[in-house]
Design a protein that fits this description.
The complex is a heterotrimer of chains A (253), B (307) and C (287). Chain A has 253 residues and is α/β, with parallel strands linked by helices. Helix content of chain A is 41%, strand content 23%. In chain A, the strands form two sheets. A six-stranded mixed β-sheet of chain A has the order 6-7-8-3-9-10, with helices on both faces. In chain A, α3 crosses α4 (115-129). The longest helix of chain A has 16 residues, at 174-189. Chain B has one domain. Chain B has 16 helices and two strands. A two-stranded antiparallel ribbon of chain B has the order 1-2. By secondary structure, chain C is mostly helical. Chain C has one domain. In chain C, α1 (2-31) packs across α9 (217-231), α1 (2-31) packs antiparallel against α10 and α9 (217-231) packs parallel to α11 (262-276). The termini of chain C are far apart. Classes of the chains: A alpha/beta (253), B mainly alpha (307), C mainly alpha (287). Chains in contact: A-B, B-C. Chains B and C meet through α5, α12, α14 and α16 of B and α4, α8, α9 and α11 of C.
C-alpha cells in the first residue's frame, strides 16, 4: 500500500526566491506528524503546495498514490485532504452551523448528502470540537479560540483522510492548548492522518509520533520528538550556532 | 393571500395599474436574478442589461425574420442568454470583484455597439418592430408574475440547499470555499447563467409587450445600475429584499414622473445617494423589526464604513 | 504620410484622453474608489469655462485654473461629506453612490443649462500649423502640452511634497499612515479634490477642442476606465501613456476600419486587457 502522502523533491519559487527547496518525505496512514521550523522556513508554503492553493515549481506530490500536483484545490478537498489556515477564514455572515455545513455539503461524501444530513453532520462535528452550543452564533461574533475551533470543524466536516493544520494553537492560552492537543489526538485516533505546523513546542512535541523540521525552505531533520530535540542542526536553526556549540560542549562534559 | 389578490388584478380593468404592476414584476424578476450573482455570490454584475437586450433582440428578430411564434422566440431568448453567460462567464469569472464589474460593463457596451452597427442582422440604429400581440396586456402581466413566482421559489429553495451554501461561501471567502471542496468556477458560472436566463426572458417578454426595441434604450447602461439599486435598496443577499426594492423604486419613480417630471432623475440620484449612505444593507434589515430606524442606527451604519 | 497624420491625430486625441484619465487614476489608485461621476465633473468643468467665456469673455485657456479650482472645491465636498462615509464598504456601495451623484449632477445640469451642445472659440482656433504635409491644429497641440504639464506637475507633487507623500503613504498602508499621524479623512478629501481639479481641467480642454452638453460627460467616464485599465489602474503615468496609446488606437481604427465599430473596439480592448493583464501596461504584474 502506498503511503498516504508522498512529497517528492517539492520546490517552489516566488520570483527568484526558493520558499521551498527540494523537500521530500512521506506520511503513512494514521500518523500524526509535526512540522516545525523557524519563521519563514516555508512550512505554510509546503501546506499550500499540498492543498494546491499554490502551484509547485518543481517536484511532485502524490496522495494515495495519485498525483495531485496538477489538480485544483477543490478537487483535492473532495479527495480527502483538508486544511486550516493560519489566519482563520470563517464565513463571517453565516452562522457557525452554516459554516460547518458547507464542509459537510462539499467534502468527500458531501455531494450525496441532503440538507438534513449535512446539518446533522455539522452538529456532530460541532459537538466534537465543543462549539455545538454556539451553533446559531454568527461566525464574526466568535472569540479567537472559538474561531480556531470553527476552522478545524469546517475541515473535519469534509471527512478528510489527511488533515493539514497550520498553527492551530497560535494565540491560545495554556488551558486552550491542552484542549486543542486533546482534540488533535482524538481526531488522529479516529483514523485521520494529521500533519500539523506548530510553534508551541510543548504541544507539538507532546502529541506527534514524528517530527519534520524545516529551515530556509529545506528539510533539515526528521525523526521522533526526542531525536529532533537533541539534533544539533535543529538547535542551531532555532537558537543559533553558538548556543548549539555551547550545549554540545556542556553535554559532553 | 396576497398572491390571490395579485392574480385577480387584471380583472379590475385598470389599465394604468396593470401596466405599472407588470413593470414592477419585471424589475422584481431582474433584481432577484441579479441578486443571485451580486447578492449571493458576491460578484456584482454591472452589465446585466446585456441579457435584457439579447433576450429582447433574439425574441424580436426571431419573430420578425423567422416568423417564429412568441413562446418559441421567448424561450430562445432566455436560452441564448444562458449560453452567452456561460461563454462570457468562463472568461470573466476568473476576475475578482471590481475587475469583474468593469468587465461586465464593458461587455454590455460592446454588445450594444455591435448590435447598433450591424444593420443587416439587427436593424442597426433603427431598431426592430415586433408584430402586434394578438392577446391582451393581461398575458404580459401573468408572464411577469409567473416569472417572479418562479425565481423567488428558486432562490428560496437553493438558499437552503447545497448550491446556495456554496454561493454564499464563495461570497464570504472564495479560497476557503475551494479548499472545502466547492467547485467555485462551476458554481459561479451556474449562478451567472441562471441570472442571465431570467433576465433574458424578461427582455423577450418586454420586447413583445412594447413592440419596438432599439439598441440605445434596450442596452442602456443606467438600466443595469437601476436594477442593482433596487436589489441593494431592498437588501442584496436576502430573498425578499430585491423584490421589495424593485416595487419601492418603481413606485417612487412613477410618482416622481407624475409630479416632478423634469427633475425626476435628480431626485432618483439623490435617493440612490441617500440609500447607499443610510441603508446600505437594504430596508429588509428594518422590516423584521430586528432593528429600528433611528438616529442611533444611522450613526452605527455610518460608523461601520466611514474612515 | 497619411499614417503619420493619423498618428499625430491620435497623439493629440490622446492628450485629451490622458487629461481625462489622470484624475480618475488618482482617485482609484489612492482610495480604490471607482468614480462613476468623473464624467459629470468633467462636464461641469467644461461648463465653467463656457459660462466664463460667454458671460465674462474670459479666454478659455485662461479659465482652466478657475475651473480647476471650482471642481476642486466640489470634489472636496463630495468626498468629505459623502464618500468618506462609505469608503470602507464593499466596492459595490461606492460604485452606486458615485453613480447616484452622476445622475443627480447631469440631470441638474440638464435643467439649468439646457441640453444644447456648447463650444467655445479662441483667437487661436483658426490657423493650424502646417509642416511636412502634416496638419497640426494649434488648439489640439496646446491641449496636449497642457495635459503633459498637468500630469508632470501631479507626479512631482506626489513625489516631492510633504502632502503628496502623505497621500502616497496612505494608499500604501492605511494603518501605518494613521499611526504616523496622517489624517486619513483629510488626505482622502484632498485626493478626490485633486482628481476633481484634473477633471475640471479636462473638461475645459474638451470644450476647447470639441463641444459639451450635459450628457456628454458619461462618455468620458468610460474613457477614463478604458485608459486606466490600459495603462494600469491607479498609475498616473499609466494614465498618461494609456491615454496616448488609446488615442492612437482610436485614430488608427477610425482610419482603417471606419468610425462604426470604434466604441466596440474600445470596450473589447478593455475586456481583453482585464483578462490578460489586469494590471495594465505600466502596472505591477500580480502573481
Amino acid at each position: 500500500m502506498p503511503p498516504l502522502l508522498e512529497v517528492v523533491k517539492a520546490t517552489k519559487y516566488f520570483g527568484g526566491l526558493p520558499a521551498v527547496r527540494d523537500v521530500s518525505f512521506s506520511i503513512e496512514p494514521g500518523e500524526l506528524v509535526g512540522l516545525i521550523g523557524p519563521n519563514g522556513a516555508g512550512k505554510t508554503t509546503l501546506i499550500s503546495l499540498i492543498s494546491r492553493t499554490e502551484r509547485l515549481s518543481e517536484g511532485e506530490i502524490r496522495f494515495k498514490g495519485q498525483r495531485i500536483s496538477d489538480k485544483t484545490p477543490h478537487e483535492i478537498g473532495r479527495m480527502g485532504v483538508a486544511r486550516t489556515f493560519q489566519v482563520v477564514k470563517p464565513f463571517k455572515s453565516m452562522t457557525v452551523l452554516e459554516n460547518v455545513a458547507v464542509g459537510a455539503f462539499f467534502g468527500s461524501d458531501g455531494l450525496k448528502r441532503s440538507r438534513a444530513q449535512a446539518l446533522d453532520k455539522a452538529h456532530e462535528v460541532l459537538r466534537r470540537v465543543g462549539l455545538d452550543r454556539k451553533s446559531e452564533y454568527l461566525a464574526h461574533a466568535l472569540t479567537v479560540p472559538d474561531r480556531k475551533r470553527l476552522e478545524v470543524a469546517k475541515a473535519l466536516a469534509t471527512d478528510p483522510e489527511l488533515l493539514l493544520l497550520d498553527e492551530v494553537m497560535a494565540g491560545l492560552n495554556l488551558a486552550e492548548i491542552d484542549e486543542a492537543m486533546a482534540l488533535i489526538q482524538e481526531v488522529n485516533r479516529q483514523g485521520v492522518t494529521v500533519l500539523a505546523i506548530e510553534h508551541v513546542m510543548k504541544a507539538i512535541m507532546g502529541v506527534s509520533q514524528r517530527i519534520i523540521v524545516m529551515d530556509h525552505g529545506q528539510q533539515i531533520a526528521a525523526g521522533t520528538p526526542a531525536e529532533v530535540a537533541a539534533n544539533p542542526i535543529v538547535i542551531s536553526a532555532y537558537l543559533g550556532k553558538r548556543y548549539a556549540a555551547r550545549s554540545a560542549t556542556a553535554g559532553a562534559s | 393571500m396576497i398572491v390571490l389578490v395579485l392574480l385577480a388584478v387584471p380583472f379590475a380593468h385598470n389599465s394604468y395599474f396593470l401596466h405599472l404592476l407588470t413593470l414592477m414584476f419585471a424589475f422584481a424578476v431582474m433584481a432577484e436574478a441579479w441578486n443571485l450573482m451580486g447578492g449571493f455570490t458576491g460578484y456584482p454584475d454591472f452589465g446585466l442589461v446585456v441579457f435584457f437586450g439579447l433576450g429582447a433582440y433574439t425574441t424580436g428578430l426571431l419573430m420578425t425574420k423567422q416568423k417564429a411564434p412568441f413562446p418559441v422566440a421567448f424561450l430562445a431568448g432566455g436560452l441564448l442568454c444562458c449560453a452567452f453567460a456561460i461563454l462570457v462567464g468562463l472568461l470573466l469569472l476568473r476576475l475578482r470583484g471590481h475587475y469583474f464589474a468593469i468587465a461586465t460593463l464593458g461587455i454590455s457596451q460592446a454588445v450594444r455597439e455591435i448590435v447598433a452597427n450591424w444593420p443587416s442582422v439587427t436593424g442597426g440604429g433603427t431598431g426592430v418592430s415586433l408584430p402586434i400581440p394578438d392577446f391582451e396586456n393581461n398575458v404580459f402581466y401573468y408572464i411577469m408574475f409567473g416569472l417572479l413566482v418562479i425565481i423567488v421559489a428558486f432562490t428560496w429553495s437553493i438558499s437552503r440547499q447545497r448550491l446556495g451554501f456554496g454561493l454564499l461561501a464563495i461570497r464570504e471567502d472564495e479560497l476557503a470555499a475551494q479548499v472545502l471542496g466547492v467547485n467555485t468556477l462551476r458554481y459561479k458560472v451556474t449562478a451567472y447563467a441562471t441570472s442571465g436566463f431570467f433576465i433574458g426572458l424578461v427582455g423577450g417578454a418586454y420586447a413583445y409587450w412594447v413592440t419596438f426595441i432599439d439598441p440605445d434604450t434596450i442596452f442602456n447602461v443606467g438600466f443595469s445600475v437601476e436594477v442593482i439599486i433596487m436589489a441593494v435598496l431592498g437588501g442584496a443577499g436576502s430573498i425578499a429584499g430585491p423584490l421589495i426594492g424593485a416595487f419601492v423604486l418603481t413606485g417612487v419613480s412613477e410618482v416622481l414622473n407624475a409630479y416632478v417630471p423634469s427633475l425626476h432623475v435628480t431626485v432618483l440620484g439623490a435617493i440612490i445617494v441617500l440609500v447607499v449612505l443610510l441603508i446600505p444593507n437594504g430596508v429588509i434589515e428594518y422590516l423584521g423589526f430586528k432593528r429600528k430606524f433611528t438616529l442611533r442606527s444611522i450613526r452605527s451604519t455610518l460608523a461601520a464604513t466611514r474612515i | 504620410m497619411q499614417i503619420l497624420q493619423f498618428l499625430i491625430d491620435g497623439l493629440l486625441l490622446g492628450g485629451v484622453y490622458a487629461a481625462v484619465a489622470v484624475g480618475f487614476a488618482l482617485v482609484f489608485g489612492i482610495m480604490n474608489v471607482i468614480n462613476l461621476a468623473h464624467g459629470a465633473l468633467i462636464m461641469l468643468g467644461a461648463y465653467v469655462t463656457f459660462w466664463l467665456w460667454k458671460l465674462v469673455g474670459i479666454d478659455p485657456f485662461l479659465s482652466i485654473p478657475i475651473s480647476m479650482v471650482c471642481i476642486f472645491c466640489l470634489g472636496w465636498l463630495i468626498q468629505r461629506f459623502l464618500i468618506n462615509y462609505v469608503i470602507r464598504a464593499p466596492m459595490l456601495i461606492t460604485f452606486l453612490m458615485t453613480f447616484g451623484l452622476e445622475l443627480l449632477i447631469v440631470d441638474l445640469a440638464l435643467n439649468f443649462f439646457s441640453a444644447d451642445n456648447r463650444s467655445v472659440t479662441t483667437p487661436l482656433s483658426g490657423a493650424p500649423i502646417q509642416f511636412a504635409g502634416i496638419t497640426l491644429p494649434v488648439v489640439h497641440f496646446i491641449t496636449l502640452g497642457i495635459a503633459l504639464l498637468l500630469t508632470g506637475l501631479l507626479g512631482l507633487f506626489l513625489a516631492r511634497t510633504r502632502t503628496g507623500n502623505a497621500i502616497r503613504a496612505t494608499s500604501m498602508d492605511l494603518d501605518a499612515a494613521r499611526l504616523v499621524g496622517i489624517k486619513i479623512g483629510q488626505v482622502y478629501a484632498l485626493t478626490f479634490a485633486i482628481g476633481g481639479a484634473a477633471a475640471g481641467a479636462a473638461g475645459s480642454l474638451i470644450i476647447l477642442n470639441y463641444s459639451m452638453n450635459p450628457g456628454g460627460g458619461e462618455f468620458y467616464t468610460l474613457i477614463g476606465f478604458v485608459v486606466c485599465v490600459l495603462g494600469g489602474l491607479g498609475s498616473i503615468s499609466g494614465a498618461l501613456v494609456g491615454g496616448l496609446i488609446f488615442g492612437i488606437v482610436q485614430s488608427m481604427s477610425q482610419a482603417f476600419i471606419g468610425p462604426a465599430f470604434q466604441n466596440a473596439i474600445a470596450f473589447g480592448l478593455l475586456v481583453v486587457i482585464l483578462l490578460l493583464r489586469p494590471s495594465g501596461i505600466l502596472g505591477k504584474a500580480t502573481a
